[in-house]
Design goal:
774 residues; alpha+beta; five-stranded antiparallel beta sheet; 22 helices; 29 strands; rod-shaped
Length: 774
């Protein structure tokens, strides 16, 4: 433009040659030409135009280059109605500034809407206002882009489900916000608020009882410019809203944009859920079980008040994995494994384990959990319970043990009844075979008499137990001297004590040991204790009996150095049917009734009985304590008898060939009776009562058949057959086991030990004779 100005013929222009121009104009023209910003000058009364290269781009071919030096009104005639008043205002000493103003112009043969941002400033010198300096920028593209963005935003706002509005705050004369007016709303506004035709109207015109807090919140945002997201309810509108509000730049400084959602239904649902949860918690806290829930990955997130009652801890302390603190450490790995397996597979969780009670004790509990799933089968959470089953489990275990003792008792009873039946059966066979032989008749009679007496004692013991348990036991209550009772009991037990070659030590203290009770029952109690001491003490042992008195008690104790009582059995030693673990060696016999009767009878006498033992092999002591001189109650006891074997039989058949037979049985009657029967059948029979004697005979004689009782003292039949198989004289002999036990495991044990056959007592003679003849 500088070259164009220099080449322009200014002589025909009212301004004349540039040399004559005022210095102010020359300075401004130089400034204009050096600027990169669009600028032009209107000079003088004719508003002669000067412009730079940056402004030339906006003129179009219709005006450039002829606009240079041209009067402004002539150049801008089509827009003079818009710009003329501004120029007049500036020439009068004012100034103007417009942003994004529409000034339509013709360019390139087309009249377009063109938007400008421009300002007019007066040019002054010492002569006054000489012209107008214009700085401007065409912003058409920016304006159209902004319009498109606004249209896009408007379309977006109109398609939103959320409500949208622009509001202007309304303040009173004191500057206090009292209301707000709606400037713009989207289509969802009515759906979200229930309000219609809101634009241009005030909020309190639409909702007269609108709460002041809404006005205060929006005014604070308009003043501070800090955006805010909040949830608020309006009782006047009957709705709850989730709102995001922020100030919008606007000349009035009071405009706020709101984006909101009606969450009334959600709030009602949440309130119903809270009420439901409160009801659930009330019900859960009232339940006796411990209720809990966990996230899908197994983290506890709820525990009811039952946990506090059970464990004495705050339910919140169990959240996450806090529950582990209550688990028994030894069981925690198995608990973990089961819980993780359920989480991975989604299977119901159920396990019995121990948990720490508030008392510090470990109690058995049953923990169960089920998964809660969504419609797609995904686990949302786990709901579970923990139930205290310690008492039930204890009772169940007691019932199981009682049932086990009952089964053991029935097995013992069958065994004990077979023992006397075997010699009785054999004696009956003798009677059939003996003809008029007086010696054999007398022997058979003695056997039957002894064994029937033993059976009567067993039945009497059973009847005593039944009477005591049903409360039908009758006692003859008289003054009884316990010295006399001790003497009577020793008289009954002495034969067994002497036969076992025990040392008996009696210690009787001073003072009258008088009690009120049944003398016969008390003798029975003490005789039972003495008999047990003799039976359960190895041969040549020591038995001590002590009788002493205090001011109000009589104490009688029986101590031995026998097999003792294992610690696990000691608390139950007086329970009905209780015995130590059964072994093939039944040399001591018994039904497990004796000590139960001892305790029952002593309790009926108003006393008590105690048992002490340091353990197996350490001996034992039983102490009876009775009230002295004062009536209190009864006492009783009887114990089951020997462990012997039983056999049934039929008439013998003649042997096809005589066999050399050795019977090894500690039941003398049973062994001799069977010997007589087999001898009458033509066999040569010998009898030994101990394994040692049997082994000695086997080393000296050739025996064809060994009949071995399993329940031998010192060495049972299973061990004995092994020793015999190792001896040259007996290795090829026929080995037959005799036992009162005939279950599958008993027979299998005999065959595994080396027997050829296993016969159950009472022995079926036809089968035995068939085995001998084979």
């Amino acid at each position: 433009m500088g070259a164009l100005m220099r080449a322009h013929d200014w002589r025909s222009n009212p301004l004349g040659s540039p040399e004559t121009w005022p210095s102010t104009l020359k300075t401004l023209v130089r400034l204009l030409l050096s600027s990169n910003h669009p600028m032009f000058i209107w000079w003088g009364e004719d508003l002669i135009q000067f412009y730079n290269d940056a402004y030339r781009q906006t003129l179009g071919p219709e005006r450039h280059p002829q606009a240079l030096g041209q009067p402004g009104r002539q150049c801008w005639a089509e827009a003079w109605d818009l710009i003329g008043p501004d120029i007049a205002h500036v020439m009068a000493g004012g100034s103007t500034w417009h942003e994004d103003r529409l000034v339509p112009l013709t360019r390139n043969g087309v009249r377009d809407n063109i938007w400008w941002t421009y300002g007019y400033s007066p040019i002054e010198d010492e002569a006054g206002i000489r012209g107008v300096l214009v700085t401007c920028k065409e912003v058409t593209e920016e304006h159209l882009l902004r319009e498109r963005l606004e249209q896009t935003n408007h379309a977006l706002i109109e398609t939103m489900d959320e409500g949208f509005c622009l509001i202007d705050m309304i303040r009173d004369a004191d500057g206090r916000a009292v209301d707000y007016a709606f400037v713009e709303v989207n289509r969802a506004f009515s759906h979200q608020t229930g309000l219609r035709d809101c634009v241009g109207r005030r909020a309190r015109e639409l909702v007269p009882q609108l709460e002041q807090r809404w006005v205060d919140i929006y005014d604070e945002i308009a003043v501070t410019g800090e955006a805010r997201r909040f949830v608020e309810g309006s009782a006047a509108m009957g709705r709850w809203f989730s709102v995001y509000a922020r100030r919008i730049a606007h000349p009035n400084g009071r405009r706020v944009a709101l984006l909101f959602t009606d969450i009334t239904e959600r709030k009602l649902t949440e309130e119903a859920l809270r009420e439901s949860e409160a009801k659930f918690r009330t019900i859960a806290d009232a339940m006796p079980q411990m209720i809990w829930s966990a996230t899908p990955d197994g983290q506890f997130d709820y525990a009811n008040a039952g946990w506090r009652d059970f464990a004495g801890v705050a339910p919140e302390s169990l959240h996450g994995v806090g529950w582990k603190a209550l688990a028994q450490p030894d069981e925690l790995p198995a608990l973990h494994q089961a819980w993780f397996a359920s989480q991975e597979g989604g299977a119901p969780f159920e396990i019995e384990h121990r948990a720490r009670h508030r008392s510090g004790a470990w109690r058995w509990v049953l923990t169960r959990a089920l998964p809660v799933r969504d419609e797609d089968g995904r686990i949302l959470r786990w709901m579970g319970t923990m139930t205290d089953i310690h008492d039930q489990k204890t009772i169940s275990e007691e019932l199981r043990l009682a049932n086990s003792r009952k089964d053991e008792f029935l097995a013992m009873l069958a065994h004990e009844l077979r023992n006397p039946l075997a010699p009785i059966s054999t004696a009956a066979q003798i009677l059939k075979l003996s003809g008029n032989d007086p010696k054999r008749l007398a022997h058979a009679s003695d056997v039957i008499e002894r064994q029937v007496r033993h059976m009567v004692e067993l039945v009497d013991d059973l009847l005593d137990v039944s009477r005591v348990n049903r409360g039908l036991a009758e006692l003859e209550r008289v003054e009884v001297d316990m010295r006399t009772v001790l003497h009577g009991a020793l008289e009954q037990a002495r034969p067994l004590i002497e036969r076992q070659r025990h040392t008996l030590v009696e210690e009787v203290g001073p003072g009258r040991a008088i009690v009120v009770g049944d003398s016969k029952r008390l003798v029975q109690v003490l005789a039972n204790l003495l008999t047990n001491a003799a039976k359960y003490t190895p041969e040549g042992g020591r038995i001590e009996v002590a009788l002493s008195t205090t001011l109000d008690e009589v104490r009688l104790s029986v101590r031995d150095n026998g097999i003792g009582i294992e610690a696990s059995l000691l608390p139950h030693v007086f329970d009905l049917f209780t015995q130590a673990k059964r072994t093939p060696d039944r040399s001591h016999g018994g039904l497990g009734l004796g000590l139960a009767l001892v305790r029952s009878m002593i309790v009926l006498h108003g006393g008590r009985v105690e048992a002490d033992s340091a353990g197996l092999g350490q001996g034992s002591r039983f102490t009876v304590i009775l009230p002295r001189h004062v009536a209190a109650a009864p006492g009783d006891t009887a114990d089951g008898g020997d462990a012997v074997t039983a056999m049934a039989q039929e008439a013998p058949a003649p042997a096809l060939r005589p066999r050399r037979v050795l019977i090894v049985d500690d039941n003398r009657d049973a062994a001799e009776s069977l010997s007589v029967v087999l001898g009458a059948a033509g066999h040569r029979v010998a009898v030994e009562e101990t394994p040692a004697a049997a082994l000695q005979r086997a080393g000296q004689e050739a025996i064809d058949v060994y009949l071995l009782d399993i329940g031998l003292p010192g060495m049972d039949g299973h061990r004995l057959v092994g020793h015999l198989r190792a001896m040259p004289n007996a290795a090829g002999a026929q080995m037959i086991a005799l036992s009162g036990y005939g279950q599958a495991q008993d027979i299998a044990a005999s065959l595994d030990a080396g027997f050829d056959a296993h016969l159950v007592k009472p022995v079926e003679l036809p089968r035995l004779l068939a085995l001998l003849a084979a």
